[in-house]
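Suppose you are handed a protein chain with no further information: no name, no annotation, nothing but its sequence. What can you learn? This example shows the usual starting point.
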Amino acid sequence: MNQRCAWVNSPDPIYAEYHDTEWGVPEYDSRALWEKLMLDGFQAGLAWITILRKRDTMRLAFDGFDPDRIAAYTDTDRERLLADPGIIRSKSKIDAAIGNAKAYIAMRENGEDFANYLWAFVGGEPIQNSYASLSDVPTKTALSETISKDLKKRGFKFVGPTIVYAFMEAVGMVNDHETGCPRHAAVKALAR
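A reasonable first move is to predict its three-dimensional structure. Written in structure tokens, the prediction is:
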């Protein structure tokens, strides 16, 4: 019987919509990848549904997750963000987003495209996993540990191996839809 992945366990329709339309779809746009990595960092210690519910407000508060604008944030911007109840108000996560914007820009100024950088870790193609149940899916892998270490070396924060693996799943670097989920085959067909 085909059913959604077991992690789609919230009655909130936003969760099912995210699973059915976004999660696992290969993303190749550098700015969109950076935004998703930032959102995964903000999720640390929280349920993903919390991020989904706040995502639109966070996009507004963080200037559309434009790294150039965020890198220029001042203490006034930090205070504005810390006072905004519509976002995750964590000083360390806000500071990480600002620092991560600067790291992203440094890569770009060094001639490195963020999308090409990330996709090179998987040879430019999504890894197609075949997990039958949620209990089979790892929370981190040797590859997510490698990417995490490399991102940290470049100055990124809130990019531990578990966050990086969740990000890899979200942006389609790995297809971790359960094999009984209708999205497994659909996402597999989207691979370049």
